[in-house]
Amino acid sequence: MPIPTVSRLFIHPIKSLDRLSVTEARLLSDGSFAHDREFALFDRDGNFVNGKRQPRVHLIRAEYDLAKFTVTLRDLRKVNREQNKP
After folding, report:
1. Which residue from 10, 34, 67, 73 has the least number of CB within 10 angstroms?
2. Residue 63 in contact with residue 13, Cβ under 8 Å?
């Protein structure tokens, strides 16, 4: 039987948003990866936002820069409207 290997590794810095491909990840004492689901989105009432209950969250695109500890968010609806302009 072949030995399993990891071919790709992803983390999700913000739960329910885009994943980030990484070449390595630090394993924390609780078994999770550093920066994986480190942040989450909440609505105005303080309720956790996820894609199962609020599918519109999937219209948000996230680009991460872990070295600078920044995230850039884009509204996919706006991007699609701009691409369809004559």
Report:
1. 67
2. no
pLDDT digits (tens, 9 = 90+) for 23-44: 999 999 999 999 999 999 999 9
* 82 DSSP 8-state letter: H
The span from the CA of 61 to the CA of 58, in Å, is: 7
- Give, as one character, the DSSP assignment of residue 59: G
* Token pair listed for 21: 């491909």
Answer yes or no: is pLDDT of 84 > 70: no
CA dihedral 47→52→56→62, nearest 10 degrees, is 90
Domain boundaries, position 35: 10-83
Give the whole-angstrom CA distance, residue 43 versus residue 5. 39
Q: Is 23 within the bounds of a domain?
A: yes
Question: Smallest Cα–Cα separation from 58: which of 23, 30, 18?
Answer: 18
C-alpha 54/C-alpha 43 separation (Å) is: 10
